[in-house]
UniProtKB/TrEMBL annotation:
Higher taxonomy: Bacteria, Pseudomonadati, Pseudomonadota, Gammaproteobacteria, Lysobacterales
Superkingdom of origin: Bacteria
Protein's recorded name: DUF403 domain-containing protein
Signal peptide (UniProt feature, chain positions): none
One Pfam family hit: Alpha-E
Segments forming domain DUF403: 1-311
InterPro entries per the UniProt record, alphabetical: ATP-dep_Glu-Cys_Ligase-2, DUF403
Length: 313
Protein backbone atom coordinates (compact mmCIF):
# COMPACT_ATOMS: atom_id res chain seq x y z
CA UNK A 1 0.00 0.00 0.00
CA UNK A 2 1.20 3.53 -0.82
CA UNK A 3 2.30 5.42 2.29
CA UNK A 4 0.05 8.33 1.19
CA UNK A 5 -3.04 6.10 1.19
CA UNK A 6 -2.06 4.53 4.53
CA UNK A 7 -1.61 8.02 6.00
CA UNK A 8 -5.03 9.08 4.70
CA UNK A 9 -6.76 6.01 6.14
CA UNK A 10 -5.06 6.53 9.50
CA UNK A 11 -6.10 10.18 9.64
CA UNK A 12 -9.59 9.53 8.31
CA UNK A 13 -10.32 7.21 11.22
CA UNK A 14 -8.78 9.68 13.67
CA UNK A 15 -10.91 12.58 12.44
CA UNK A 16 -14.12 10.53 12.63
CA UNK A 17 -13.35 9.46 16.19
CA UNK A 18 -12.28 13.00 17.08
CA UNK A 19 -15.60 14.41 15.84
CA UNK A 20 -17.54 11.85 17.87
CA UNK A 21 -15.58 12.52 21.04
CA UNK A 22 -15.69 16.30 20.64
CA UNK A 23 -19.48 15.94 20.64
CA UNK A 24 -19.19 13.74 23.73
CA UNK A 25 -16.86 16.28 25.39
CA UNK A 26 -19.34 19.12 24.94
CA UNK A 27 -22.00 16.70 26.13
CA UNK A 28 -20.17 16.38 29.48
CA UNK A 29 -20.58 20.10 30.10
CA UNK A 30 -24.13 20.24 28.75
CA UNK A 31 -25.27 17.35 30.93
CA UNK A 32 -23.58 18.81 34.00
CA UNK A 33 -25.34 22.13 33.45
CA UNK A 34 -28.66 20.32 33.51
CA UNK A 35 -27.80 18.26 36.61
CA UNK A 36 -26.29 20.97 38.79
CA UNK A 37 -28.37 23.33 40.97
CA UNK A 38 -28.47 26.96 39.93
CA UNK A 39 -26.37 27.98 42.93
CA UNK A 40 -23.31 26.20 41.47
CA UNK A 41 -21.04 28.18 39.19
CA UNK A 42 -20.32 26.44 35.89
CA UNK A 43 -17.40 27.52 33.67
CA UNK A 44 -16.93 26.33 30.07
CA UNK A 45 -13.55 28.01 29.57
CA UNK A 46 -11.40 25.16 31.03
CA UNK A 47 -12.72 22.88 28.29
CA UNK A 48 -10.75 24.87 25.70
CA UNK A 49 -7.51 24.03 27.49
CA UNK A 50 -8.60 20.40 27.78
CA UNK A 51 -8.50 20.02 23.99
CA UNK A 52 -5.18 21.89 23.81
CA UNK A 53 -6.65 24.87 21.94
CA UNK A 54 -6.14 27.64 24.51
CA UNK A 55 -3.65 29.59 22.40
CA UNK A 56 -5.85 29.35 19.29
CA UNK A 57 -8.90 30.50 21.27
CA UNK A 58 -7.06 33.53 22.61
CA UNK A 59 -5.99 34.48 19.09
CA UNK A 60 -9.58 34.19 17.87
CA UNK A 61 -11.01 36.06 20.89
CA UNK A 62 -8.27 38.49 22.00
CA UNK A 63 -10.71 40.83 23.75
CA UNK A 64 -12.69 38.29 25.77
CA UNK A 65 -10.44 35.21 25.97
CA UNK A 66 -10.52 34.89 29.75
CA UNK A 67 -14.08 36.14 30.25
CA UNK A 68 -15.55 34.30 27.28
CA UNK A 69 -19.20 33.38 27.54
CA UNK A 70 -20.74 29.95 27.07
CA UNK A 71 -21.79 30.69 23.48
CA UNK A 72 -18.24 31.70 22.46
CA UNK A 73 -16.70 28.54 23.90
CA UNK A 74 -19.34 26.19 22.49
CA UNK A 75 -19.15 27.80 19.04
CA UNK A 76 -15.35 27.47 19.12
CA UNK A 77 -15.52 23.78 20.08
CA UNK A 78 -18.27 22.83 17.65
CA UNK A 79 -18.36 25.16 14.66
CA UNK A 80 -15.30 27.42 14.42
CA UNK A 81 -13.28 26.60 11.28
CA UNK A 82 -10.28 28.41 12.80
CA UNK A 83 -10.10 25.75 15.52
CA UNK A 84 -8.18 22.74 14.08
CA UNK A 85 -9.89 20.37 16.53
CA UNK A 86 -13.47 21.67 16.29
CA UNK A 87 -16.29 19.31 15.42
CA UNK A 88 -16.85 20.98 12.04
CA UNK A 89 -13.12 20.94 11.16
CA UNK A 90 -12.85 17.24 12.05
CA UNK A 91 -15.83 16.24 9.89
CA UNK A 92 -14.69 18.45 7.01
CA UNK A 93 -11.15 17.04 7.22
CA UNK A 94 -12.47 13.46 7.18
CA UNK A 95 -14.64 14.36 4.17
CA UNK A 96 -11.74 15.91 2.25
CA UNK A 97 -9.53 12.89 2.92
CA UNK A 98 -12.28 10.51 1.80
CA UNK A 99 -12.78 12.52 -1.37
CA UNK A 100 -9.19 11.64 -2.37
CA UNK A 101 -9.46 7.91 -1.49
CA UNK A 102 -13.09 7.16 -2.32
CA UNK A 103 -12.14 4.02 -4.26
CA UNK A 104 -10.50 2.61 -1.11
CA UNK A 105 -13.61 2.60 1.11
CA UNK A 106 -17.28 1.67 0.48
CA UNK A 107 -19.63 4.25 -1.07
CA UNK A 108 -21.84 4.03 2.04
CA UNK A 109 -19.04 5.59 4.09
CA UNK A 110 -18.87 8.62 1.77
CA UNK A 111 -22.66 9.07 2.00
CA UNK A 112 -22.58 8.88 5.81
CA UNK A 113 -19.76 11.43 6.11
CA UNK A 114 -21.46 13.73 3.62
CA UNK A 115 -24.70 13.51 5.63
CA UNK A 116 -22.80 14.63 8.75
CA UNK A 117 -21.23 17.53 6.84
CA UNK A 118 -24.61 18.71 5.53
CA UNK A 119 -26.26 18.29 8.94
CA UNK A 120 -23.64 20.47 10.65
CA UNK A 121 -24.08 23.15 7.98
CA UNK A 122 -27.87 23.09 8.35
CA UNK A 123 -28.28 22.64 12.12
CA UNK A 124 -24.98 23.80 13.64
CA UNK A 125 -26.22 27.21 14.75
CA UNK A 126 -29.09 25.59 16.67
CA UNK A 127 -26.55 23.68 18.76
CA UNK A 128 -25.55 26.94 20.46
CA UNK A 129 -28.94 26.98 22.15
CA UNK A 130 -29.12 24.85 25.29
CA UNK A 131 -32.57 23.66 24.22
CA UNK A 132 -31.34 21.93 21.05
CA UNK A 133 -27.72 21.15 21.92
CA UNK A 134 -28.06 17.63 23.30
CA UNK A 135 -30.21 16.59 20.33
CA UNK A 136 -27.56 17.96 17.93
CA UNK A 137 -24.70 16.26 19.78
CA UNK A 138 -26.51 12.92 19.86
CA UNK A 139 -27.13 13.12 16.12
CA UNK A 140 -23.42 13.71 15.54
CA UNK A 141 -22.43 10.80 17.78
CA UNK A 142 -24.92 8.52 16.00
CA UNK A 143 -23.57 9.59 12.61
CA UNK A 144 -19.97 8.90 13.61
CA UNK A 145 -20.93 5.51 15.06
CA UNK A 146 -22.66 4.71 11.77
CA UNK A 147 -19.39 5.41 9.93
CA UNK A 148 -17.49 3.21 12.39
CA UNK A 149 -20.05 0.44 11.95
CA UNK A 150 -19.81 0.62 8.15
CA UNK A 151 -16.01 0.42 8.33
CA UNK A 152 -16.18 -2.54 10.69
CA UNK A 153 -18.80 -4.45 8.68
CA UNK A 154 -17.86 -3.68 5.07
CA UNK A 155 -14.08 -3.18 4.78
CA UNK A 156 -11.71 -6.04 3.94
CA UNK A 157 -9.26 -6.95 6.71
CA UNK A 158 -6.19 -5.94 4.71
CA UNK A 159 -3.32 -3.62 5.65
CA UNK A 160 -5.51 -0.56 4.99
CA UNK A 161 -8.00 -1.74 7.60
CA UNK A 162 -5.18 -2.11 10.12
CA UNK A 163 -4.26 1.56 9.64
CA UNK A 164 -7.93 2.45 10.24
CA UNK A 165 -7.83 0.45 13.49
CA UNK A 166 -4.54 2.02 14.52
CA UNK A 167 -5.85 5.56 14.05
CA UNK A 168 -9.15 4.81 15.79
CA UNK A 169 -7.48 3.28 18.85
CA UNK A 170 -4.93 6.08 19.25
CA UNK A 171 -7.53 8.84 18.86
CA UNK A 172 -9.93 7.17 21.28
CA UNK A 173 -7.22 6.76 23.93
CA UNK A 174 -6.30 10.44 23.56
CA UNK A 175 -9.89 11.71 23.61
CA UNK A 176 -10.82 9.54 26.60
CA UNK A 177 -8.06 11.23 28.60
CA UNK A 178 -9.30 14.65 27.42
CA UNK A 179 -12.90 13.92 28.43
CA UNK A 180 -11.65 12.67 31.81
CA UNK A 181 -9.55 15.84 32.07
CA UNK A 182 -12.66 17.94 31.42
CA UNK A 183 -14.62 16.08 34.09
CA UNK A 184 -11.83 16.54 36.62
CA UNK A 185 -11.12 20.18 35.81
CA UNK A 186 -12.75 23.33 37.11
CA UNK A 187 -16.03 23.16 35.18
CA UNK A 188 -18.01 23.14 38.43
CA UNK A 189 -17.21 25.45 41.33
CA UNK A 190 -19.38 24.86 44.40
CA UNK A 191 -19.93 27.81 46.69
CA UNK A 192 -19.73 25.56 49.75
CA UNK A 193 -16.58 23.45 50.21
CA UNK A 194 -18.62 20.74 51.95
CA UNK A 195 -20.39 20.06 48.64
CA UNK A 196 -17.20 19.52 46.65
CA UNK A 197 -17.07 15.71 46.92
CA UNK A 198 -20.74 15.26 46.00
CA UNK A 199 -20.38 17.52 42.97
CA UNK A 200 -17.13 15.81 41.99
CA UNK A 201 -18.91 12.44 41.94
CA UNK A 202 -21.63 13.97 39.77
CA UNK A 203 -18.95 15.20 37.38
CA UNK A 204 -17.50 11.70 37.07
CA UNK A 205 -20.98 10.28 36.49
CA UNK A 206 -21.38 12.74 33.60
CA UNK A 207 -17.99 11.68 32.22
CA UNK A 208 -19.02 8.02 32.29
CA UNK A 209 -22.33 8.80 30.60
CA UNK A 210 -20.69 10.92 27.91
CA UNK A 211 -18.38 7.97 27.09
CA UNK A 212 -21.38 5.60 27.05
CA UNK A 213 -19.73 3.87 30.00
CA UNK A 214 -22.11 4.37 32.93
CA UNK A 215 -23.99 1.07 32.51
CA UNK A 216 -20.78 -0.85 31.91
CA UNK A 217 -19.27 0.80 34.99
CA UNK A 218 -22.21 -0.40 37.09
CA UNK A 219 -21.93 -3.87 35.61
CA UNK A 220 -18.17 -4.19 36.25
CA UNK A 221 -17.73 -2.19 39.47
CA UNK A 222 -21.10 -2.55 41.24
CA UNK A 223 -20.44 0.45 43.48
CA UNK A 224 -21.54 4.06 43.45
CA UNK A 225 -19.49 6.38 41.28
CA UNK A 226 -16.44 7.97 42.91
CA UNK A 227 -13.43 9.68 41.38
CA UNK A 228 -11.13 6.76 42.20
CA UNK A 229 -13.41 4.06 40.76
CA UNK A 230 -14.21 6.07 37.62
CA UNK A 231 -10.50 6.73 37.04
CA UNK A 232 -9.66 3.06 37.46
CA UNK A 233 -12.44 1.99 35.08
CA UNK A 234 -11.66 4.52 32.33
CA UNK A 235 -7.89 4.17 32.57
CA UNK A 236 -7.29 0.50 33.27
CA UNK A 237 -10.34 -1.63 32.47
CA UNK A 238 -9.42 -4.45 30.08
CA UNK A 239 -12.90 -4.94 28.62
CA UNK A 240 -14.50 -1.50 28.09
CA UNK A 241 -13.72 -0.39 24.48
CA UNK A 242 -13.20 3.29 25.37
CA UNK A 243 -10.84 2.75 28.29
CA UNK A 244 -7.30 3.93 27.69
CA UNK A 245 -5.80 0.52 28.42
CA UNK A 246 -8.22 -1.27 26.08
CA UNK A 247 -7.33 1.11 23.22
CA UNK A 248 -3.61 0.67 23.80
CA UNK A 249 -4.01 -3.12 23.94
CA UNK A 250 -5.88 -2.97 20.64
CA UNK A 251 -2.95 -1.10 19.10
CA UNK A 252 -0.65 -3.76 20.50
CA UNK A 253 -2.69 -6.45 18.73
CA UNK A 254 -2.63 -4.50 15.42
CA UNK A 255 1.14 -3.95 15.20
CA UNK A 256 2.10 -7.64 14.55
CA UNK A 257 -0.03 -7.52 11.37
CA UNK A 258 2.04 -4.60 10.02
CA UNK A 259 5.69 -4.18 8.98
CA UNK A 260 7.82 -4.11 12.18
CA UNK A 261 8.87 -0.71 13.48
CA UNK A 262 10.80 -1.00 16.79
CA UNK A 263 10.33 2.71 17.55
CA UNK A 264 6.54 2.34 17.49
CA UNK A 265 6.65 -0.70 19.80
CA UNK A 266 8.93 1.12 22.21
CA UNK A 267 6.69 4.19 22.50
CA UNK A 268 3.55 2.05 22.80
CA UNK A 269 5.04 -0.07 25.60
CA UNK A 270 6.05 3.11 27.43
CA UNK A 271 2.52 4.54 27.50
CA UNK A 272 1.03 1.13 28.36
CA UNK A 273 3.36 0.93 31.36
CA UNK A 274 2.44 4.45 32.44
CA UNK A 275 -1.29 3.65 32.31
CA UNK A 276 -0.99 0.23 33.96
CA UNK A 277 1.14 1.52 36.85
CA UNK A 278 -1.05 4.53 37.63
CA UNK A 279 -2.65 4.55 41.08
CA UNK A 280 -6.24 5.84 40.74
CA UNK A 281 -6.52 6.28 44.52
CA UNK A 282 -3.61 8.73 44.48
CA UNK A 283 -4.82 10.46 41.33
CA UNK A 284 -8.26 10.98 42.83
CA UNK A 285 -6.85 12.90 45.80
CA UNK A 286 -4.97 15.28 43.51
CA UNK A 287 -5.85 16.94 40.24
CA UNK A 288 -5.75 14.11 37.65
CA UNK A 289 -5.30 16.66 34.85
CA UNK A 290 -1.50 16.57 35.15
CA UNK A 291 -1.45 12.80 34.68
CA UNK A 292 -3.82 13.06 31.69
CA UNK A 293 -1.47 15.63 30.15
CA UNK A 294 1.41 13.21 30.66
CA UNK A 295 -0.44 10.44 28.81
CA UNK A 296 -1.30 12.84 25.99
CA UNK A 297 2.37 13.78 25.60
CA UNK A 298 3.30 10.09 25.31
CA UNK A 299 0.47 9.49 22.83
CA UNK A 300 1.79 12.42 20.79
CA UNK A 301 5.24 10.81 20.75
CA UNK A 302 3.64 7.51 19.72
CA UNK A 303 1.89 9.25 16.82
CA UNK A 304 5.20 10.81 15.74
CA UNK A 305 6.80 7.36 15.76
CA UNK A 306 3.96 5.93 13.65
CA UNK A 307 4.22 8.80 11.16
CA UNK A 308 7.99 8.44 10.92
CA UNK A 309 7.89 4.67 10.66
CA UNK A 310 5.05 4.21 8.17
CA UNK A 311 4.28 7.45 6.34
CA UNK A 312 7.46 9.55 6.05
CA UNK A 313 10.22 6.98 6.31
Amino acid sequence: MLSRVADNLYWFSRYVRRAENTARLVGVGSQLQLDMPRSVRFAWRPMIDTVGAGECFEQCHPETAEAAGDADVIRFLLLDERNPSSLRTSVDSAREILRSIRDTLPQDVWEAINDLHLYIDAQGERSLSRRYRLEFLQRIVDGCLKVSGLLSANVSRDIGYQFLRLGTALEQADMTTRIMDAGASGLVRPRNEDDREAFQNMQWMSVLRSLAGYQMFRRHVRQRVTAELALRFLLQNNEFPRSVHFCLSRMQSVLPTMPPRPGVDRHLNRVIGLTRNADPAVLATRNPAQFMDQIQVHLGALHDAIAEGYFHG
